[in-house]
Specification:
The strands form 2 sheets. A 5-stranded parallel beta sheet has the order 5-6-4-7-8, sandwiched between helices. A 3-stranded antiparallel beta sheet has the order 1-3-2, with no helix packed on it. Helix 1 crosses helix 6, helix 1 crosses helix 7 and helix 4 runs parallel beside helix 8. Helix content is 37%, strand content 12%. The chain starts with a strand and ends in a 14-residue tail after the last helix. With 282 residues, it is α/β, with parallel strands linked by helices.
Amino acid sequence: MITAAAKCHCGHTTDRFRLNNLRLNQTLTVGSHTVAVWRTAVQDNRCDLRIFLPSHTSEKIFLRSIPGSGNTWMRHLIESTTGVFTGSAYDDAFLATGGFLGEFDDVSSGRTLVIKEHSAGSEPSKNIILIRNPFDAIVAEFTRRQSHSHVGLGNTNIFKDSDWNSTVKKMANSWLSANISYLKKSSSHIIVYYEYLKRDKVKEMRRVVDFIGFKVNNLEERLLCLQLEGSGLFKRPSRNRAVNPYSSDQTKLIDEKIRMLGSYLKDNTEDRTPLPNYERHY
């Protein structure tokens, strides 16, 4: 709040002044002062805190997606929003070193809020299903493999390699079959589309927190931090879309898988959020 005496007072978000406001439309009278209320982009370190829950506190909830779908960024958003570490079935030392301290925690400990898993599992489970445009997911995963990095962009020459064509075929099939398997093996689920998450991460994370059922005491403050922050340590920078790595045959194959998943979602799920318009993305 900026007072008539040119003094600034920092406060918290409230029901009257939510995180989407840049400023309050009217001035307020506080005591003998008239004040104006503004939102600033000052980094709020209160949102950096992450903890492990006491053992066997959390029910087992999985974050399921095919590689390249943005699951590491999603984990960052979940941790930033809730203040609780996420877990993983993979023990990735690179991610653990980068701050994902739940990476090496036993998946049955109940100390982490969500567990990253690419497979559908053998038993029905509660799942957050992260779906990304397959054109983007395939490029992201192929680039990661070639650069051996979660954030590498690689060189466009890699798409001329023979491995590229075989990767497209395998991952296009996997994108369809894995997402259908996630849905079939879910005792309950929420679908999060990467593109909607990128467009409005605060709105999508509200949905995720409601699905998890975890009580976040300072949710509004954490969502404000989430809105103001960058992309997180492990989100890749944007790739140059001037280069289309897909042949016409590859594009037709992926388009067909998109149509098949769209039909499955329409006929077999209660989630009426339509599949984003992925076809012929490039």
